[in-house]
Amino acid sequence: MTVALAVFCLFALVLHFLSIGLAARRVWTRRRAMPVPSEAPPVTVIRPVCGIEAFSRETLRSSFSLDYPNYEVLFCVAREDDPVNAIVHCLIDAHPEIPARLLVGDDRVSLNPKLNNTVKGWDAARNEWIIMADSNVLMPRDYIQRLLARWQFNTGVVCSVPIASRPTNFWAELECAFLNTYEARWEYAADSLGVAFAQGKSMLMRKSVIDRGGGIRALGAEIAEDAALTKLLHAAGLKVHLVNNPFEQPLGARTAAEVWSRQTRWSRLRRMTFPLMFVPELLPGAFFPFVAAMAFAVHAQIGGAETGGLAVAFLALWFGVEAALARVAGWHWSMRMALACVLRDILLPLLWVDAWLGSGFTWRGTEMRPREAIETSR
Asked: Do 224 and 369 form a contact (C-beta atoms < 8 A)?
């Protein structure tokens, strides 16, 4: 038993270090913006909007500050009375040099409200290259260049994971702990091994490729459009690639309920759409390796002081390399974030169990039933 516990702890640590090393190679902070490529194809940026968030004006305004010679911006909203419309109209009027429009309407092509809101933008796009970007993505000036730079001969979509920034309370720090050095890290590790999955935050696609697979409406085959896109591209023999140096999503304040709701929604979606890939998600956090390390100390009859020292050393090593990844990448980190990472890894097994017990959730006031959506599409 003692040997088995030691082997498990060692294996977990090696896997932890390996995932961080793979991610660090991809997100090392760049000092200069990427130049515009010599051949800069025209690009359509589609941004679905719904309601006003803490940084909506700033994130939407970034759509007009891109250092790229030929692009249009299509904002999509479902309702005429949405309060975000005033912000969008103001920004469009303030930047007449950028071709931009606000498209209003709700095309019920699926059970996914975001996809329904986006369809009209896809149909109205004038260009072959299309970027779908959530309204809370803060676009740097070289946003389009970074996405285009990752396009390869076998690419079907280039995505960016969300990198949380500007937390103003502990629960927002917890969301940073989930999104940055955990979820983004593992997605980059998977991408480095050639098994990336589409992430709906920012997605660069070629219209002709998606249209050959059934078009934008085919993404309603799953409750999550990025999961449907992943399966569509894999069926076509194409790859998902992640952008180097992902883009920022400023948070502000969060409540515990908001963070838990988002994480349960995402974990349930992953379990429903890729169940075999979801099974190992029970293990990557520090919870089980730490328990195994303490059990090892008990079985090896290590004294109380030495056991305490082992616990501190294990946690310092585990979360210390996460802090190093955040520093290398230029992501948010603080002492409060370290505590948030500990809480995150305690919650991970609970999220995993919840994902198997539950299926539905509420998203922006809409009741979502993933199982019903998948069965309906079949």
From this structure: no
> CA-to-CA distance for 184 and 237, rounded, in angstroms?
24
- Asked if residue 377 has pLDDT above 50, the reply is no
Task: Write the CB contacts of 10 (distance below 8 Å, at least 6 apart in sequence).
Answer: none
| Cα–Cα distance, 250 to 200 (Å, whole number) | 17
165/137 Cα distance (integer angstroms): 11
Give the pLDDT confidence of 187-242 residue by residue, as tens digits.
999 999 888 889 889 999 999 999 999 999 999 888 889 999 999 999 999 999 99
Helix (H, G, I), strand (E, B) or coil at 363: strand
DSSP string, 65-89: ----SSEEEEEEES-TT-THHHHHH
The CA distances from residue 200 to 105, 170, 174, 203, 346, in Å, are 21, 26, 21, 6, 27
Q: Residue 350 is inside which H or E element, if any?
A: helix 335-357
Residue 74 structure tokens: 């299509």
| Cross-strand pairs, 202 | 133, 160
Do 92 and 101 form a contact (C-beta atoms < 8 A)? yes
Are 344 and 177 a contacting pair, CB within 8 Å?
A: yes
**pLDDT at position 375 over 50:** no
Condensed to tens digits (0 to 9), the pLDDT of residues 218-231 reads 998 888 899 999 99
Nearest to 201 by CA among 145, 143, 144, 137: 137
What's phi and psi for 60, nearest 5 deg? Answer: -70, -35
CA distance 296 to 173: 32
Contacts of 216 (CB under 8 A, 6+ apart): 115, 118, 119, 122, 123, 210
**Single-letter code of the amino acid located at 330:** G
Question: Distance between CA atoms of 113 and 71, rounded to whole angstroms?
Answer: 26
Q: How many Å is the maximal CA-CA distance in the chain?
A: 73
pLDDT digits (tens, 9 = 90+) for 86-113: 999 999 999 999 999 999 998 888 888 8
The pTM (predicted TM-score) of the whole model is 0.91
For 224, other C-beta atoms within 10 Å of its C-beta total 23
